[in-house]
Amino acid sequence: MTKFFGIFGIITVLTLTACSPVKFGEANKNNGTCNVSASCPVDPTGGTFFTQQDQVFTTTNKVDILIVNDNSDSMATEQANLASPFNGFINNLMNASNTIGLDWQLAVTNTDICPQAGGICSAPSPATGLPVSGARGRFYAPVTSQIEPVYGNYILNRFTPNVANVFASTVRRVTTTGKVEVGSGDERGIYAASLAIDLRNTDNAGFFRDNSNLAIVVLSDENVRSVGGQNANDPDNRPLENDDLPQTLLNKFVTTFGGTKALVFNSIVIKSNDTACRAQQAAQPSSINGGSSPAHFGTVYEQMSNLSQNGSIIGSICDNGAGQFAQMLSQVTGSIQNLPALNRMTLNYIPSQNPVVTFTPPGNAVSWNWVPGTNVITFSQRPANGTNVHVEYYYTSGSQKALVGGGGIQPKVQIQNPFQIPGPFQQRPFGFPRF
Questions:
Q1: At what angle do helices 189-198 and 246-257 cross, to 10 degrees?
Q2: Judging by DSSP bridges, how do beta strands 356-360 and 139-140 pair with one another?
Q3: Which of 5, 59, 418, 37 is nearest to 260 (CA)?
Q4: In the chain, where the domains are located
Q5: d(Cα 383, Cα 104) in Å, to the nearest integer?
Q6: pLDDT band for position 388 (50/70/90)?
Q7: CB neighbourhood size of 294 (10 A)
Q8: How are beta strands 387-396 and 48-57 bridged, if at all?
């Protein structure tokens, strides 16, 4: 078994060999060695690991919203339809500022990481300027008359003049002369979000604030790297690299921000098994040559939403008419607004047996519930401000397939009250014995 330290994220299981099965894990249990960046196997041959993670519950009305916008050619039609629905999205955020004091800020990047090692990149055409250079995690400026985008420290908030219009001209990548911006067809939204975090102290300084939650919204009509690395027979298939995986991004989130932030990951994609939407997307003409290309379910982004939990929304890219898209964005806004009130903790992995939960200070302990087969602990009430919740648990590599692929996607629990999971709460006494 292995030891780990993690919070909201999923950590890539490291293959470790040539170590003492029990002594390694047990010896490092309480000295900080077993954390998100260093796996501690207890029984490597049996695929059993130990992990530990913390979350500090704080009261904050701050949220930083990162939009990861697919700017590949297949998104041209959606780009033309985005302005009006997203006006409603901004209006909802402004209303939340006025009613509950939500302190939000927002930035937009794209799924294009070119030029980047491992990326499928091509040089821009002198005649058309297409494809444009990738953001690589940097933030967009509003569109201009030029096809080549401008990147920099462009952060919007409730004090930005004409913020709805500025945001619309930032997320809708159609120039003032009517040309559609086209980036790489190698869509890598998870990698792009990770790169944005890497730039937090340079290009993106000031966006990832202290004592602020993080909401990521991916907008794409394709899977990660088009096919999600899931079909070697598909001509568009490209293998997923480590930076394309959901657990890698969640690991980045955990190691970078510790237990001081909550994460919600909203995916607006072609939903799994929605063949009508996939057919609609595949029939859309190219903005470059008028042809069409296959479309794919956004399963890897869905996995990311399922893993991050916290009320993450999975919406359809095809719901862009008759108010459906605006309604879905309203749900996304709701998931963002609810972050400060969540009384749950997302675990890096699915525990294989009851976890051990301790509270600091002990007087702030509340009852909690864990449903076997899930990676969420739900508290009877949100722990008091300043409470550190420490969780220790064992997991097996096989049990994670329900969440991250290989055995399908763990279905999200559909509940009316977003802060409770049905079933009796199980009171775990402080100092619950370790397994």
A1: 20
A2: unpaired
A3: 59
A4: 1-54+349-435, 62-340
A5: 23
A6: very high
A7: 14
A8: antiparallel
Q: Which phi and psi angles does 134 have, rounded to 5°?
A: -75, 155
Q: Can you tell me the distance from the alpha carbon of 105 to that of 65, in angstroms, rounded to the nearest whole number?
A: 6
Omega of the bond leading into 85 within 30 degrees of 0 (cis): no
- If you write DSSP's letter for every residue of 331-382 in order, what string do you get? HHHHHHHTGGG--EEE-SS--SS--EEEEESGGG---EEE-TT-SEEEESSP
Question: Whole-angstrom Cα distance, residue 91 to residue 164?
Answer: 7
The residue type at 162: N
Residues 338-374: pLDDT tens digits?
A: 888 889 998 878 888 899 999 999 999 999 999 998 8
CATH architecture of the domain 62-340 equals: 3-Layer(aba) Sandwich (3.40)
pLDDT at position 224: 94
Dist. CA 237–CA 228, nearest whole Å: 7
pLDDT at 424: 30
Q: How far apart are the first and last CA of the chain?
A: 11
4 token code pair: 């780990």
Question: pLDDT tens-digit profile of 390-425?
Answer: 998 888 876 665 454 433 233 232 222 222 222 333
Q: How far is CA 358 from CA 2, 342, 390, 429, in A?
A: 19, 18, 5, 9
Tokens, residue 308: 């991050």
Query: Residue 390: how many CB atoms within 10 A of its CB?
Result: 15
Q: Which residue has the tokens 């500090």?
A: 56
